[in-house]
Amino acid sequence: MKTSTLAPVSAAALDSLVQCCVVGLESHGELSESGKQMDMLGDGWLTRAVARGDLSGKRGELALLPNPSGSGVQSILVAGVGDRESMDAEAAFELGGTIIRRLLDRPRGAIVVALEDFVPSRFQVDLVAGSVMAAEGQDLYQNPKKNHPPEMVQFMGFAEEVVDKGSILGSSMNLTRRLVNEPANHLYPERFAQIARDLAEEWGFECEVWDEQRLDTERCHAMLAVGQASDHESKLVILRYRGADEESPPLALVGKGVTFDSGGLSIKPSPSMVDMKCDMAGAATVLGTILALARMRVPVNVMGYCGLVENMIAGNALRLGDVIITRSGKSIEILNTDAEGRVVLADVLNVAIEARPSAIIDLATLTGACMVALGTEVCGLFSNDPQLAGRLEKASREVGEYLWPMPMFPFYAELIRSKVADIKNTGDGRWAGAITAAKFLEEFVENVPWAHIDIAGPAFAERAKGFRDAGGTGVMLRTLVRFLEPSVAE
């Protein structure tokens, strides 16, 4: 789906090749400027429909109507925007997604979104991002496709840089979502690594891939242990985006990339295993974020680390009671092979600190316990640095994503002490499972400012919403980009 800006024109000037024009309606019944023009061309037809109660300005409600004037644009989509004074980034993003999702039912050519007077300029990027994001779904292998993105969406009155930025954010989210939605027989560590190589070559960032021989040389024995029962080799993908001067220390993004998680010998029941293609959402988010930064040319230096493995079962599978010596030298007692993501990240975090980053942010679909605590819409935030955590919270609020700080008191670390090794890969029983997982990761970041974002709930949606298909969501990508933009990062 292509996007562009369109200079403000009268409704009468819209060409008949425009298949749909989107106009706005507030909750108290006022139409957007383009809506008023469409109303006049139809002798007050929209005003009468509002008066009858046939059209609602409630946020997210839509009505697709044929153009009664018989000339110009073929149809009108009246989009409820609620109260324009309460419009924020989340509402604009969801409004853009809801509009495009309504128009995916059949092939369409040009769509004009004429909402410039109802969406404040500071939230127009979010509207564009939501529109582009919504054009793709999880119907990757359906024939024919369920969704039909319009050929072109033009945003009337939006600045060119707004449309460009919003399109980059939306398409980068779709890269992340597409990777998460890919089944494990199509996306495995080597395939992910090749996609990263191709994107790096196309968009001008660097990509280095460590194979199993290099991982062994680098003493990444925790990563190798988790993936040793798979026919697919484990890989570590290292990405470098250089947008600032060489003296500026990079920020490190670390992503869990378990391309399929059977649970290992601690095997998951079938209903819990069905969606485990999504257990690499952290790595997909890291790649999508690096892509967005490179395309937007954000003036920062960022390193990305994607630890890619399959957690499978075979005669050589990791066993309960095994002890692994990690790259850092710390030993881990394995008490649950389904708590594998933290074991992978133990080595990846140790690689990341060697770049002397200004901070490390890791993203992982790490624990079901975080979903028990926060539900499926909120990411958990764990950190050793209140300032870093505060900046991430601020960025998430500004783009309308949900991030909630969790406690990291020192006494939680006692719950992961092992009797035979330095630490164990589970806590004591059911309690504080998301926190003990974060305390495990903290063991491998030394004194570097660090934040862990548990995206287990929001990364993969079981059900579609009005603005987004089910499946991968791309959560936290916009937060990370906002965090790294100079106005937030300074």
Structural write-up:
The structure is a single chain. This protein has 490 residues and is of the alpha/beta class. It folds into 2 domains: 2-158, Leucine Aminopeptidase, subunit E, domain 1 (3-Layer(aba) Sandwich), CATH 3.40.220; 182-489, Zn peptidases (Aminopeptidase), CATH 3.40.630.10. The protein has 16 helices and 19 strands. An 8-stranded mixed beta sheet has the order 7-8-10-9-13-17-14-15, sandwiched between helices. Strands 1-6-5-2-4-3 form a 6-stranded mixed beta sheet, with helices on both faces. Strands 11-12-16 form a 3-stranded mixed beta sheet, with helices on one face. Strand 14, helix 13 and strand 15 form a beta-alpha-beta unit. Helix 4 runs parallel beside helix 5 (160-181) and helix 8 runs antiparallel to helix 11. It is elongated and about 80 Å long. It starts with a strand and ends with a helix. The mean pLDDT is 96.
Query: Could you say what the CATH architecture of the largest domain is?
Result: 3-Layer(aba) Sandwich
Within CATH, the superfamily of the largest domain carries the name: Zn peptidases
**How much of the sequence is in beta strands?**
15-25%
Helix content: 25-40%
Number of helices: 16
Structural category is alpha/beta
The spatial strand order of the largest sheet comes to 7-8-10-9-13-17-14-15
Number of separate strands: 19
Mean pLDDT: 96
Instruction: Give the C-alpha Rg.
Output: 24 Å
Oligomer type: single chain
Spans of at least 5 consecutive residues with low confidence = none
